[in-house]
Amino acid sequence: MKVFVIGAGLMGRGIAIAIASKHEVVLQDVSEKALEAAREQIPEELLSRIELTTTLEKVKDCDIVMEAVFEDLNTKVEVLREVERLTNAPLCSNTSVISVDDIAERLDSPSRFLGVHWMNPPHVMPLVEIVISRFTDSKTVAFVEGFLRELGKEVVVCKGQSLVNRFNAAVLSEASRMIEEGVRAEDVDRVWKHHLGLLYTLFGPLGNLDYIGLDVAYYASLYLYKRFGDEKFKPPEWLQEKIKKGEVGVKAGKGIYEYGPKAYEERVERLKKLLRFLGLE
């Protein structure tokens, strides 16, 4: 398979490096200077697998397109509209903020367009998000997802909006509010680095909720909702349904996930290993 990557900046060159471990890549940019800068960053063993070019015409020989140009709606649409006339390959945009619907509705072939949001640096970070628009064809999604998994990536499929961005927005919004209330920046980061970040790294926010206990989380949320009247604390319906079924987490053997009899002990051992690895024990 041959992949056409548009844009030789930080993300584009990283995407090219990530893909070149398994496939041939054509890395395109209108700037010779950007291509030369990219060449200097590409590992020597991968140089033979990455062709550098300033023309879009070479997309005709490629099986998939990865666009990583400047994060501007008009710029992305202009490039993608030109490319879609040259190939029938899936059109993937690395946009992280711009709505995929806003891009898709401006294309002639919106069914083969989707967002493919690589994390930075792309050749190091394991997660890639597929963000589908209301026009995206399911066969296109399956093809791109299979391609990414073959690269060894962890893939999540999102509808219309990046999950990473939603998490980021929520966390950074609350962290900013804390700063405005007088909390020290060091303390905000310390809570994440020495507690929440560790738990979420190993178990994820929902997996960690199972260890806390869904019933405990429900009553805590209910108290906070009644005390402060903030909608963000209101217990969700799915949580109440879980409790009614007795699926309250690790202590019940089932919550959001299912657990064996030694789940808690295994959790402790995983935390100890992570702390030792990070030098925080």
Automatic annotation (TrEMBL):
Keywords: Cytoplasm, NAD, Oxidoreductase, Phosphoprotein. GO terms for molecular function: L-gulonate 3-dehydrogenase activity; NAD+ binding. Its EC number is 1.1.1.45. GO terms for cellular component: cytoplasm. Residues 164-259 form the 3-hydroxyacyl-CoA dehydrogenase C-terminal domain. Belongs to the 3-hydroxyacyl-CoA dehydrogenase family. This is L-gulonate 3-dehydrogenase.
